[in-house]
What does this fold into?
Amino acid sequence: MKKVNLGSGTTCLDDWVNIDSSFNARLAKCPRLRYLLFKIGILPKEYYEMPWSEHIHKVMVRDVRKKLPFDDESVDFIYSSHLIEHLRKDEAEKVLRECFRVLKRDGLIRLIIPDLELMARNYLKEIGEIRNNKGKKNYLPSERFLDIFGVGVERTKTPFILKIFLSGSRHRWMYDSISLTALLESCGFVDAQKRSYKEGELPDSDLLDNRPEHSLYLEARKP
Ligand SMILES: C[S@@+](CC[C@H](N)C(=O)[O-])C[C@H]1O[C@@H](n2cnc3c(N)ncnc32)[C@H](O)[C@@H]1O
It folds into this structure.
């Protein structure tokens, strides 16, 4: 059975094909260089401490925007958590079309994304609380909301350009359940179902899922 995790980060299970293009993952193949870059201050501590070295032997370092390295209808399950919002909308569509190509008939895809609807609702709730003097003091909901889109205030010392270089961390598009379902359907998927954290039909969701506080979990099938 073939199971593929796209944009795995360091969440890599042994019996999955884990694919990630992080520069940090590439560096993990050269631990001395990685240590040196950390020591001279080029690789920030937060990136150096990511446990890539433990996982790199399980990762196929590859950009998912390229053709997926699998035959047509050869994959049983695809999992992708907090990846597609880092791609442009047209790139995400291309990746999902590739997922459709490589999945077997009746194969399942599980996508996890930051839920735009949930975030918008939280934003409105928080500004409502502030207007009613019930909100946290010295807190601007708008900053957190705008941060989601990559236009907010940078709060860490890492230069923005370096952040992009190291992890492709900027969000380029956001989805809610309606727009993600529409995107999946436009790529040929059917039966899109909203799921819960660690719940659904995809195997190992209980081991792979994270970020329950703001994620949308959606599964769909290739007919
Ligand atoms: C926010 S992290 C999510 C990691 C993990 N899936 C999780 O849920 O914790 C996004 C991951 O996608 C990877 N990524 C971003 N763009 C990519 C691309 N074009 N090809 C492959 N991986 C990519 C990044 O390197 C990063 O590890």
User: Anything to note?
Assistant: Residues 116-171 form one domain. The pocket of S-adenosylmethionine is lined by residues 7-9, 11, 20-22, 63-65, 81-83, 86, 167-168, 210 (CB under 6 Å).
